[in-house]
Amino acid sequence: MEFPIHELEDFYPGIKQARLSEEFDRYYHLExxxxxxxxxLAEQNFLDFLKKGTPLAYITNQAYFYNAWFxxxxxxxxxxxxxxxxxxxxxxxxxxxxxxxxxxxxxxxGLSILKETQKPLELTFVDLSxxxxxxxxxxxQTHKYSFHPDHKVxxxxxxxxxxxxxxxxxxFSNPPYVKRSQIIHDxxxxxxxxxxxxxxxxTYEQWYRDFFEAARKLAPILLLEGHExxxxxxxxxxxxxxxxxxxxxxxxxxxxxxxxLGS
Length: 263
Ligand SMILES: C[S@@+](CC[C@H](N)C(=O)[O-])C[C@H]1O[C@@H](n2cnc3c(N)ncnc32)[C@H](O)[C@@H]1O
What we know:
Helix content: 40-55%
Bound molecules: S-adenosylmethionine
CATH architecture of the largest domain: 3-Layer(aba) Sandwich
Radius of gyration: 19 Å
Largest sheet: 7 strands, mixed
CATH topology of the largest domain: Rossmann fold
Number of helices: 11
Shape: globular
């Protein structure tokens, strides 16, 4: 199938025929599994999605992250390349076995850590969205045989650490970090879950203050992904809260992206 690239470029800048063909094959394969066999209909539906600017990962229900494919749908954020840096930071800084992820979404971060480390970790996944947590569980079921056989997991529905108890060696999170007043890509805003992206400007600082306070009662290290324009302010907040080690590091595009808090 030949795709009308010129009509799609606004939504998918720089996209190539080969990539779209590959994504279509993935989509058609899934449609076939669901029992729809008409190639013509699948092509038409795929094109209709493209013309509306639907993110490819939501059309195919699959996204690639850190060496593996994950199921995604409109209830979860599409995994971002920058978050692979958070996975690496967690692996580098993790000394024990007990880990908690706040805001697990697709589960791509925590599940990649379980897979990459091949250690008997106990990982607690938390999300405020019931539907997102279902996706975390679904992806866990798909990937669990590639983890250390003695790993353990817990799934908690709740706001940040409110429902979490016990002690952890490390807590990490890629939380919602865009202020509602900040400008983001229209397509992201239209298709990805509001709850995964935004916090209100007026309560932004308090949201993080409460999160930092709760985290330091449970773990000596909190690692976060954050917005390049907001991360230095959050680092300052943590210094005012007397965290012993506060460090902002950059992603591969040299943008402030990760925050290490040690207490
Ligand atoms: C930026 S997404 C990250 C998803 C996934 N970890 C990733 O990196 O692709 C943030 C996630 O946090 C969840 N979330 C939002 N507010 C939350 C809260 N107060 N407590 C726990 N989870 C929350 C959202 O539902 C969403 O799944």
